[in-house]
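#struct-help
A.M.: can someone run this one for me? Single chain, 411 residues.
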Amino acid sequence: MAERVAVLLAAGVSSRMNTHMPKVLHEVTGRPMLAYVLDACRSVGVDKIYVVVGFGADQVRERFAEESADIVWVQQPQQKGTAHAVMCCKEHLADFAGQTLVLCGDGPLIRAKTLKTLIEKHEAEHSAVTLATAVLDDPTGYGRIIRDAYGNIQGIVEDSDCTAAQRAVNEVNPSYYLFNNQVLLRALEQVKPDNVKQEYYLTDALSVIIATGHKVVAITAVRPEEAVGVNSRAQLSVASKIMQQRIQQELMEHGVTIVDPDNTWIDARAKIGQDTVIEPFVYIHGAVKIGRDCRIGPFAFLRHGTVIGDDVVLGVFTELKNTTLADGVRARHHSYLGDAVIGRNVNIGAGSITANFDGENVNRTCVGDDCYIGSGAVLVAPLVLQPGANVGAGKVVSQKNVDRLNEEPGQ
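D.P.: on it. Structure tokens below:
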């Protein structure tokens, strides 16, 4: 099996996004777009990932600082096109004799399965270049795949350079390339900016490779939704909806009931156990973990860092943030639990909250097993309630109150 690296194009400025943030950092279901492309590359055995950055490069590097062991950051000082971006990696790739994937960092809907198909086709055909294409009802904005009468690829024409006849072609280039690396490097040396935008196109490198007699194969393997690029806020919304459908479909296949998928939002990082029921209008944001046999919602809001055990019931307008609930907890109505650890079989009454922020610090609340928290109670953090404690309705409980009660005879 050949060694394989990837070059991810993540340097561009998106004027249509109207943003001060690098486009690849905009989130789709809670994760930056670039994260999905990195995951797909890692899933197909990529050894090293060269991420070409330009606009907002420091922000991109900072965002992925904790997961960059296999990433080499490559600066593109001026954005002069896709071929120019790959040329910026030349010093890293000069002696590499394996395969080079070239992908766009703003394509979050990429699937590892598609890349696997691309790689298998490349190796079976012994081609110099293999690309995965898509067929779209509306190909506007995409480069068109031009084939001869026998179906052999003759080249790719960018949308802005198409003739009327070429614009009618529905097979498009969503930028999924696999090159034999040394063939790629030689071709890049011959690319010229002979186009409307005066940019160096990677598609022209493909034309050079075809012209020099190397075998180039195009396989129609990209689903239409995978081809969705993100160049505007509207397209970002479309990508998020598609990703949300994927997330919920996978959860349902693994035994989670989602009562109303269209009115439920679940973060890509969330984990949910078998036979848990997600009621309508639930919003799960961040790395949230929910156990088995739970019932969540309706109208529950679970925030990053929350961990929920088995057989937990969270009802209407319950909000959790960075909180751990042990098995059997009940919090059915209008409660807020923030930065808390709640023990087994605890009942949280309607409207009860943890007051976890004192104006300067966020503090923890720890509630032992088998406690009863009455309706409308306020637990003022930092606070530790021992197992079996009973807090009456409407009580404001601080650690000073608890300590004083513990000191009184007979308490």
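A.M.: thanks! The longest strand covers residues 171-180.
D.P.: also worth noting: The mean pLDDT is 94.
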